[in-house]
Structure of Diguanylate cyclase (GGDEF)-like protein:
Amino acid sequence: IRMVERLREGLEADEFTVHYQPIVTLRGGRSVAFEALVRWTPPGQDPIGPDRFIPAAEDSGLIVCLGEWVLRRACADAAPWFHTYGTTITVNVSPRQLAEHDFADKVRRALDDSGLPGAALTLEITEGVLVRSGAHAELTLAHLTELRSAGVRVAIDDFGTGYSSLAYLRDLPIDFLKIDKSFMPDDPTDAQQGALVRAVVDLARSLRLVTVAEGVETAHHAELLRTLGCDRGQGWLFGRPGTAAAASLRLVSEA
Ligand code: G
Ligand code: G
Ligand code: MN
Ligand code: NA
């Protein structure tokens, strides 16, 4: 309850920022997208990680307001990146947002107001989104279908960590699979870990989805993923989340 109060105050006092982490092609290494990741630094304090405040924002419903703010900020920051380099932006969306009757309207307005086409935006949702949206599952599906027909793409985040993953892949309109970072082997010689990454990448590829590996921390991870035919990577090896200015600089230096 205290956390919720602080969140509400923080939103009013404009204490949030958005950081951006590059998503690169595993062949070529170009930053084709950035994931928007919200940050909260109350004045005079250390940053509070999203792991701590996103759950509270979801439980209280404040995520609807915070999520819309992140979406609008990210679209505004990403507009020059898209227009100059074709770099797209991916934004995390929680089930609560998708259960709002006007979610698709809000997304279209954020795009219009920043001068972006739908194709510049990817929404990241989790496998459990239909279950967690409960009675709103139909509305969630309708929003995603409508936005996709406007060119917006949809990614399944943290793939492989939820349950009944396969049924969701069948029922959800999606374009990308983001393989959860827990699948990156911490021991390159462990055959069992290697087999698991291979199985997940093969599954995603056979569904003709673009595959994005998360948590790529080492050159070995990148090499393994290339061998397996994974399309894109995101992780500390390629770049940590940073400010919009840092993202712009990165694009300039790649051009
Ligand atoms: O890097 P990281 O600590 O930023 O993110 C931790 C968790 O918070 C991840 O699960 C990430 O998806 C989530 N997260 C980060 N930014 C947002 C956001 O804007 N909206 C939602 N719903 N989740 C976010
Ligand atoms: O849940 P989601 O996948 O949206 O959030 C991405 C999270 O992963 C963020 O907290 C981000 O800071 C974190 N992250 C990004 N790259 C790496 C990495 O290479 N290793 C680890 N352990 N975490 C990472
Ligand atoms: Mn994400
Ligand atoms: Na992710």
